[in-house]
Amino acid sequence: MSLSRLNLKKLASLFIITFSLSVIFIFFISPHALKADEPESYEQLKEGFQDPDPARWGEVPLWWWEGAPLSKERITWQLETLAEQGVKSVCPIQRSPGRCDPKSFSPEWWDMLEYAHKECKRLGMSLWAYDQVGYGHYGWLEKAAAKIKDSPVKKIEFIRREVDGDATINLDLPSGELLGAGAYEMETGPAGEPTVHDLTSMVDEGMLKWKAPSGRWKIAISVATPFKGFYLQEAATDTFLNMLYGEIEQRVGKESMGSSFAGVFQDEHPPTPRDLYTEELAELFRERNGYEIGKAIPALHFDVGKKTPKYRLDFYDTYLELIEETYWQRVFDWTEDRGILFSHDNWGRNNIYRQSQGYIDYFRTQRWFSAPGLDDSGQHPITERNYYDIKIAASIARLYDRSRVWDEAFHSSGWGRTTEQTMDWLTANYAFGANLYDEHGLYYSTNASTWEHAAPDPHWRQPYWRYYNHLSEWVSRMSYLMSQGTHVVDVAVHYPVVSLLAERTPGESAPDYNTYMDLSRTIYNEGMDNDIIDDHSILRGEIQNGTLKVGGNNYQALVFGPEETVRRSVIEKSLKLANSGGTVIFYGQLPIHSAEAGRDDPALASLLSRLFGSSPERLSQTQSTVHQFDSGGEAVFLPAVAEKIPALLTTHISRDVITSGGDVFMAHRRVGETDIYLFQNTQQEAMTLQARLRADGVPERWDPMTGNAKPVDAF
After folding, report:
1. What integer pLDDT is reported at residue 449 of this predicted model?
2. Could you give the CA distance from residue 202 to residue 217 in angstroms, rounded to a whole number?
3. Residue 578: alpha-carbon gap to chain centroid
């Protein structure tokens, strides 16, 4: 196809669009590197878009095997009925083992799953499995731990007592390995460095005997006691994999993994414990940090002085490293080796505090899913869909090279939900970064309308079912296209979990760490897509010509919300970005504590002085500060008014999209020589949008409803 080349950025050309819902535009651009599984040409991309495999790219409904006993005849009828309307993938699920007849994971249930898979193969469909590790808790992890003989895992029992001086303490301790015992002076307060007495030598035969000096003292003792724990040991993970995922593989056949068997869905995984211990953990801690783990444990429970943030983060960093290695990454590797997707909708929805409560550092644990996901529920307009959780899942996918983002949608939206609403809401979610539609409702039975779970079921029980194949084709085309290539985004917003984990007094006298997502949404609403970025991604990224390059993404700007504690290494990388020509923005509050040294770190203050051209304490708390570098890079401190950030970014970066004429959601993906732009009208009425795009070529409009592709007229 011959194209007239137009450089839209240099010519400041305006791309004028009139549309009512959503449009997808395609531009040809200069060549880019392709991933192994990507279309190699425009024609291949177009062919894949026009005729995508619905078993791979289409809807994956949760098929609730409840409400009535399972039968092979009914399973066959339902699968055939779904396949006729283009729904070519299913994921059986149940709320608890006893709610399914036969009970889930019983021999009879496995036979039904095996039969459903055979029928899927016959019909050209794909099957998923729900592992019931979390929601509907079956106890897989506990069962696996119980099978391990001579388990190395122990539980950290922490004993704390407050005593006045001149008192004599006689304290019986739990039976186990003493990790540490100390007495902390309480009079100095959190700003000082308390006197600490090491009491380990005062422990004899399970009894602590100590006479306290004058003053008030906080006694802290850590003992590793026997415990049947799952985490921190590869043997338990391997046992779990053999018990569950290995059984799935045996039932469907190894040759079906990654083809007719598509993946595993995990819902609401149980929270990660923070109080387990092994000798391997202690050794790793010693190697990483240069001191014993028992010295850090008290800081998890109370303020031990200036080094409290360091102790807390040293513990969590080491603990998570071993948890990842022995569990999360091990499961990911098992699924990757077999070519199946590993998806989730986990706890912590819309709240960084709950994310941390559930998994300590959400990025470090959830990055080990090949299809990180979320739950978007309820009857809400497109402007109120679940931006927060989609943005987190999509950012993890982009930063860690995961091609799919699982969107569990739209439970509790009601039986009256229309296909128009489904398309509206899904388009918004695709614009935010999702690309795998998991419809929450597909009921095996409604039991004469007496059983339902978080209605609706939009399938054969609906009057529009006869037309559903059109929606199925639309979903497949949208999912296919929005899963290809690399996402194009210019701005990264920092994920402040380090500051949260290091809090001096959790929940008190600290910034609202959820502000980071408010900043992200403020930036997005002004036409600048952005990712949430974690410390690990920043630190492994490369700085080149004013951009931070991570996982195929090129970020021109880093934005930080209010934070008290950061890694110095992250600020060092930010300084390099500004020195290279990039933009760094801090909003609301500058950090003063570091993960490396603790509170009031002078080395951190020195780095911030170099970043802003002035010491942090001299920066105005009412006026913004802009420090320009010789490279053209800039560092900005904005003490208030987050709404100013988009204007600052517009001034300091080369924007990908600039629009006027109405409010839109947008996303941009790049596949080899092709740019893909998705625009969604967020208003009730049709709009005429003027858009300047950072792309070359005459655009084509690709219609996901029909598969048609044609050049834009009079461009």
Report:
1. 87
2. 16
3. 27
- Dig out the tokens for 262 from the structure: 């598509």
Give the helix/strand (H/E) hosting 681.
strand 674-681
Whether the upstream peptide bond of residue 102 has omega within 30° of 0, thus cis, is yes
Residue 115: exposure state from Cβ atoms within 10 A (0-12, 13-18, ≥19): middle
Listed residue (72, 38, 63) closest to 126, CA to CA: 63
- Reported as a single tens digit per residue, the pLDDT across 522-540 is 999 999 999 999 999 999 9
* Each residue's pLDDT tens digit, 596-646: 999 999 999 999 999 999 999 899 888 899 999 999 999 999 999 999 999
Taking the C-alpha atoms of residue 245 and residue 257, their distance in angstroms, rounded to an integer, is 11
Please give the average per-residue pLDDT across 571-598, as a whole number: 97
Q: What does DSSP assign to residue 630?
A: T
Distance between CA atoms of residues 413 and 451, nearest Å = 16
CA distances from 168 to 114, 207, 210, 486, 533 (A): 67, 13, 6, 66, 51
Q: How far apart are the first and last CA of the chain?
A: 16
Nearest C-alpha neighbor of 539 from the set 515, 559, 567:
567
Average pLDDT over residues 586-604: 97
Secondary structure (3-state) at 562: coil
Nearest CA to 187 out of 165, 206, 172, 171 is that of 165
Cα atoms found within 13 Å of the Cα of residue 664, Cβ hemisphere only: 30
Distance CA 664, CA 526 (A): 9
Counting Cβ atoms within 10 Å, is residue 617 exposed (0-12), middle (13-18) or buried (19+)? exposed
619 and 612 in contact (C-beta within 8 Å)?
Answer: yes
Taken in order 45, 49, 50, 52, is the CA torsion positive or negative? Answer: positive
3-state secondary structure of 546: coil
User: Where residue 2 falls among pLDDT bands split at 50, 70, 90?
Assistant: very low
**Cα-to-chain-centroid distance, residue 26:** 28
Give the up-direction half-sphere exposure of residue 332: CA atoms within 13 A in the CB hemisphere: 19
Instruction: Please write down the HEC assignment for all residues of 570-607.
Output: HHHHHHHHHHHCCEEEEECCCCCEECCCECCCHHHHHH
Closest CA to 584 of 566, 572, 601, 596: 572
8 A C-beta contact, residue 309 and residue 502: yes
Q: pTM for this one?
A: 0.94
9 pLDDT band, cuts 50/70/90, is: very low
3-state secondary structure (DSSP) of residue 352: helix
Query: Phi and psi at residue 238, in whole multiples of 5°?
Result: -65, -40
Q: Which residue has the higher pLDDT, 18 or 582?
A: 582
- Mean pLDDT to the nearest integer, 241-249: 98
Helix (H, G, I), strand (E, B) or coil at 187: coil
Question: Can you tell me the distance from the alpha carbon of 226 to that of 635, in angstroms, rounded to the nearest whole number?
Answer: 52
- C-alpha to C-alpha distance for 670 and 677, rounded to whole angstroms: 9
Q: How confident is the model at residue 673 (pLDDT cuts 50, 70, 90)?
A: confident
Pairwise CA distance, residues 687 & 662, whole Å: 6
657-660, strands of its sheet edge to edge:
15-19, 687-693, 657-660
Residues 186 and 212: beta-carbon distance below 8 Å: no
CA distance 221 to 157: 8
Residues 227 and 320 sit within 8 Å (Cβ to Cβ): no
Q: Which residues contact 36 (CB under 8 A, 6 or more apart)?
A: none
Residue 273 DSSP symbol: P
CA distance 21 to 461: 27
Q: Choose among 108, 136, 114, 145: nearest CA to 127.
A: 114
Label each residue of 437-479 as H, E or C.
EEECCEECCCCCCCCCCCCCCCCCCCCCHHHHHHHHHHHHHHH
